[in-house]
Automatic annotation (TrEMBL):
Segments traversing the membrane: 282-303, 354-372, 378-397, 409-433
Location relative to the cell: Cell membrane; Membrane
Protein name, entry field: Spore germination protein
Keywords: Membrane, Transmembrane, Transmembrane helix
Entry GO terms, CC: plasma membrane
One GO BP: spore germination
Pfam family, one: GerA
Membrane topology: Multi-pass membrane protein
Family of the protein in this entry: Belongs to the GerABKA family.
Length: 494
């Protein structure tokens, strides 16, 4: 058995702390006696596991000989206990699930604090946002210790280092920064720790709070820290030399530094043949470009460049827009807003109702708007395909960004036509060229151009050709394995 004493700040304010605790109805205090000596047990019933109290504490206390608080502490066969009179330490332990034991009811000098936290956690289930047909079916949960356990099972290395931090003046949220020593760049690790440690905020509820607070550019619509719910993905990027941030209470981990290309790569790609995986990645990139540009191109051509249309297609468009009283921009804007409305309604409603609203609402509204002459059937098809293409983005955050970017492209196309689309694209390209993730270029390997990192970007080459870790991470150990040995495939009889 082990306990330590802590007497840094005295006990001048201890009665005040007790009075503050007792103002809450879920804070309980009981008095018991051993011989002629009374002792008191106090705790928040909503935070502690009562079974620990009745199984590991009370039976041993009643059988002991009580002379002072040290004797009482020695009688309790629990490892996670301390004796303290430090106000901050007492408050921190009690509010995280510790039982207080003390002798003097009015002005106690010292307290025994025994950890008895109640752990209410969701069972590990399959990923919902990053679901894959092939591969592991485990996802992070809201417990930080469980999430770290899921990562350590996949990285059983003593070099996997965990740095614990606490953020939030009210929430006191626990945050863990993970990296593999001798691989991860120390500058990246120190940057993450420094940014989290410097945060001044009262409440951190989820990892998405940190995404916004420690990003290189707080005003960018593009995510610069990859959000994942898959422990296998977190373990894989740790081996690449990246940093993983796990937040207690959040079922998602953050990965950095990242590049734009990573947001179009599903982790399931690594479980497939490289040729199939590369084809899927190219389809996703094409789908995002289609979703972003197709509707603005339609508006630009019908507003400013109708001479570019072939004669056969011109008659189809004219006939579809004969009864439409609105200009192409307003027509497209209304349909885009209707699509977003259906998305939000489907996302906020229960699953079964949301699916019904999306299907029925899309069919009914689309058919009725065409028959009423409020929109053309050609534009309706284009916007439906663009909405469908936007769902191919494997990372939800980037999907939201693509949804937002369609509106400025639409406005520029209405004002300046195809020149406006090019101008808007130039603005966002300039922004992407300046954007960084933990100080690393966001557009790498496109800019700065690095041919070595193209092996796992728009296409995924075979594992035997990925002998080096990504250059963008600037790892301390760039070589993963010997490429010469990787190509030597010997049979057992050779």
């Amino acid at each position: 058995m082990f306990f330590k004493k802590n007497a840094r700040n005295g006990n001048a304010s201890t009665p005040t702390i007790l009075q503050q605790f007792k103002q809450s109805n879920d804070f309980l205090t009981f008095e018991n006696k051993i011989g002629t000596v009374s002792y008191f047990i106090s705790y928040y019933k909503s935070l502690i596991d009562v079974e620990v109290l009745h199984r590991d504490i009370l039976p041993y206390i009643t059988e002991s000989t009580l002379r002072n608080l040290e004797d009482l502490s020695l009688a309790i066969p629990c490892e996670n206990k301390i004796i303290s009179n430090d106000i901050q330490e007492i408050s921190s332990h009690v509010l995280t699930g510790s039982i207080m034991i003390y002798l003097n009811k009015d002005k106690p000098k010292q307290f025994i604090l025994v950890q008895a936290q109640k752990n209410e956690a969701r069972q590990i289930s399959a990923p919902e946002v990053e679901f894959s047909v092939i591969g592991p079916k485990e996802a992070f949960v809201e417990s930080m210790d469980t999430n770290i356990n899921l990562i350590r099972k996949r990285v059983p290395s003593p070099n996997l280092q965990v740095t614990n931090l606490q953020v939030g003046k009210i929430s006191k949220t626990q945050v863990a920064v993970l990296h593999i020593d001798e691989i991860a760049n120390k500058e990246n690790v120190n940057t993450v720790i420094q940014r989290i440690g410097d945060l001044e905020f009262d409440q951190i509820i989820d990892s998405s709070y940190l995404t916004q607070m420690i990003a290189d550019n707080h005003h960018s619509p593009f995510p610069v820290l990859l959000d994942t719910e898959r422990p296998d993905r977190a373990a894989a990027v740790l081996a690449e030399g990246k940093v993983v941030i796990v937040v207690d209470g959040s079922p998602h981990a953050l990965i950095g530094p990242t590049t734009l290309i990573e947001y179009f790569a599903a982790f399931e790609d690594y479980f497939l043949n490289p040729h199939i995986a590369s084809a899927f990645r190219l389809i996703r990139v094409f789908s995002v470009a289609f979703s972003l540009l197709m509707t603005p191109i339609y508006v630009a051509i019908l507003t400013h460049h109708f001479e570019l249309l072939p004669k056969d297609l011109m008659s189809t468009l004219v006939s579809s827009r004969t009864l439409v009283p609105f200009p192409p921009f307003l027509e497209a804007l209304v349909l885009e807003l209707v699509i977003e409305l259906l998305r939000e309604a489907g996302a906020r409603l229960p699953t079964k109702v949301g699916q019904t609203i999306g299907i029925v609402g899309g069919i009914v509204i689309g058919t009725a708007s065409v028959e009423a002459g409020l929109t053309s059937n050609v534009l309706l098809i284009i916007i439906a395909l663009a909405a469908l293409a936007s769902f191919t983005t494997p990372v939800y955050q980037m999907g939201n960004t693509i949804r937002l970017l369609r509106f400025p492209f639409l406005l520029f196309a209405h004002v300046w036509g195809l020149v406006g689309i090019v101008l808007c694209f130039s603005f966002f390209l300039t922004h992407l060229l300046r954007l960084t993730s933990l100080g690393r270029p966001y557009l790498e390997p496109i800019y700065p151009p690095r041919a070595a990192d193209l092996k796992d970007s728009f296409i995924r080459m075979a594992f035997a050709r990925q002998s080096k870790r990504p250059i963008v991470v600037q790892t301390e150990k760039i070589q993963r394995f010997s490429q010469d040995k990787a190509f030597k495939n010997k049979d057992i009889d050779e």
